[in-house]
Amino acid sequence: MSTLPQPAGPGSLRRPDGQPVRILVVDDEATLTELLSMALRLEGWEVHTAGDGFSAIRTGRNVQPDAVVLDVMLPDMDGLEVLRRLRAAAPDVPVLFLTAKDAVEDRIAGLTAGGDDYVTKPFSLEEVVARLRGLLRRTNVLARAESTTLAVGDLTLDEDSHEVRRGGRVIALTATEYELLRFLMRNPRRVLSKAQILDRVWNYDFGGQANVVELYISYLRKKIDAGRSPMIHTLRGAGYVLKPAE
Predict the structure, then answer these.
(1) How many structural domains does the chain have?
(2) How far apart are CA 194 and CA 212, in angstroms?
(3) Are 128 and 163 members of one domain?
(4) Do residues 68 and 57 lie in contact, with contact meaning Cβ atoms separated by under 8 Å?
C-alpha cells in the first residue's frame, strides 16, 4: 500500500530532483504503521507501507525508497532476511530497525546484519523521525541546500544543534521540551490536540494522562513566552497552537 506525496513544509528534506524523500515502513501492526505513516507525511515525505516481508521486498524493488523502517519480527520471515534481500537490489539504502526485543545480542545482530540504526518498542514517533533524518543526512540522496532551521516569528530552532532562540536569546530546553516545541513549530498556526501531541512526543502506546501535555506546555510557556508576547495559545476543548506573537 502506498500514499500519495504530500506537500512538504518548511525545512523538509528533499531529493536533489526536488521530489519528496521516499520512506518504506514495514510492520505487521496496522495501528503502528498508520501512526508512523502520519508522522512521516507531516515531514512532507512520501510513505509506502508493507505488512509482511514478501510485500516489503516487492514494494522496495518497485519504489526504490530512500530509507526503510523495518520491524524485526514479521509474520512470514525474519526482518534480517528482508534486509538482506532489500540490500541485494539497493546496497546503500539506510535501514532503521524496529524491535520489541531489548536484549543487547538482538541489537548487535541487527546492526551486524547491516542495519544502520534501531529503536526499541515502545518509542516516541519523534524519535523515529529524528533517527531517520540523521540517516538520510548521512546519505547522498538529499538536496544539499536543505535548511535545518525552523522559524516562527522571532523564535528559531536548529534541528542539527538543537539550539533554540527567541529574539536572538538562547533558550535552554530539556529533551522533552525540545521535542514538544519542535512538533509545534513544524505545525505553526495549526491546532494540535492533546492526543496528537501524545502520539508524536511520547510513546505511541503511552498510557499516561493527557495532563502530562498540559504540564509540559506550561514548562514551555515559562521559557518561550516569559516576559514576551505569547506565542503558545490554548483553545479550550481543541488543543494548542503556536503562532507568531502579535
Answers:
(1) 2
(2) 9
(3) no
(4) no
